[in-house]
Write a structure and sequence with these properties.
about 130 residues, mainly alpha, thylakoid, chloroplast, Early light-induced protein, transmembrane helix
């Protein structure tokens, strides 16, 4: 009697899906890089903007016009490279998630920081000066 081969309905949990490390895949619209990098930059930018406002009393537009652009470019390059190296090596953000610091929490914090920067700029524009 021939025995039919049945498909395995319970695949091994040790098998991981292959993560694409191609540059275009990482930077695709739904890829892991764009929103994460922008969110990380927004988190740093929001905290830095509020810190400078509290220490010097400068609004966001004054910070940018008085030497903030080189700091922005340098920080953008540094954080982008630091974020891309693991992604291009095939390390997923989800694999490093643990406890409170999950990849979902990072996405939401980044989204809120992006909205916070826009709200800060808009409020300071309407008010005509620093928020604090």
């Amino acid at each position: 009697m021939l025995q039919e081969s049945k498909p395995d309905l319970n695949p091994s949990p040790n098998l991981k899906s292959k993560v694409s490390t191609g540059f275009t895949d990482v930077f695709a619209f739904s890829g892991p890089a764009p929103e994460r990098i922008n969110g990380r930059l927004a988190m740093i930018g929001f905290v830095a903007a509020i810190a400078v406002e509290l220490s010097k009393g400068q609004d966001l537009f004054a910070q940018i016009s008085e030497g903030g652009i080189p700091w922005f470019i340098g920080t953008s390059i540094l954080l982008s490279v630091a974020s891309l190296v693991p992604l291009l090596q095939g390390v997923t953000v989800e694999s490093k998630s643990d406890g409170v610091m999950t990849s979902n929490a990072e996405l939401w914090n980044g989204r809120l920081a992006m909205l916070g920067l826009v709200a800060l700029a808009f409020t300071e524009f309407v008010k005509g000066g620093a928020l604090v």
